[in-house]
Amino acid sequence: MLVPIGRESDWIFCTAAGHLQLLLTSSSQDLFLSRLIFIGKFPNFSCPPMSYTRPQSEPDLCSLQHFQEALFPLLLALCPKAAFKNGVPEIPFLSYEDNVVRSVLVDRIEGPVSGEMLVEDVEIDVSPVPELRRRLRFKMMPNLVQTQPYLAPMVAGLSLVAPFLEEKIKLGLRPRALCLGVGGGTLPMFLQSKLDFDILGVEADPVVLNIARQHFGLVEGEFLHVHIGDAIGFIKNVAQQEDTLRRGLERMSDLVEGSRIDFDVIMVDLDAGDAVNGASAPPSEFVQRSVLLAAKMVLHDRGIIVINVIPQSKAFYSELIHDFHEVFAELYEIEVGNGENYVLVATVTNVQLSRSGSCGSWLQKLKLVIGEKHMNSINKI
Fold first, then answer.
1. Which of 29, 210, 266, 337 has the fewest Cβ atoms nearer than 10 Å?
2. Domain assignment present for 136
3. Domain count, the chain
């Protein structure tokens, strides 16, 4: 793989986690890679670059071809003996492309749970005009950018229960959402400020929460609370207390920091912490049957769970879909459009997916704040 000029010290190209993620994501049914060799300038392992600007000119194709031909004997020498079983092997040259035009390092922090992190201001090449964004990246999962590509698709999943949410609002009640994984706080802040949700966030790393406050404008208040702790342990604990209530053994009106049991929506934005297990998000522990049953128990009878999925293999994704089908009534998939992320929406009870007809004021508001693109891409699976 040819490393882009100026990005040699990016964690994607100079860490074992980044190498493994690139190896897994570059492999496919048509192209199985047993090893990945990086070609570029030597990186500075001690410090990520303070800034990066994508070169404006494309490399000369003729010069690139000569360069690859000159490298071919060296690459052959690095191939395992098994590669020569059917003759001289073909060695594909890969290039890395993303939508980052330029980036500037804002802060570099280390947390007890998430490890080393970067806050960056980036210019993203999107149509019709480039966008300026602030993002949070993790050294243990350098290809994973918190909430950047999948906020709108995750929020679009709410359209499946729009009639239910409309009913609550007409009764003067705020919809309630549990956000597992706060990160930079973009998703919980969006739900609270744009759609009037009552939010409880759960974040494992207190340093990440401080980053969200300092660099991303997270402000907690009456309708936005954050609990520090493990998300999986938290949801199991809530489910256990809910089960106690249902059995009539104990009366309880409040849970953590004034937040009641029974959520209308659970938003899951959790990463696996490392790429070795074959999944970037969610962690494999989350899709265990006991955890999914716990999530279902703390949801309203008409509630949904929306989960960001970044699988490193089709096998993991297929198994995840099967696990959700075993617990929830229906499962829907929303296209993110980047070829890497999927958003799944699981429902406690059957819902009606309608793309036509009249819509209530809340659904109309949802369309105004995120558009209809991702709503129209919702498919039952």
1. 29
2. no
3. 2
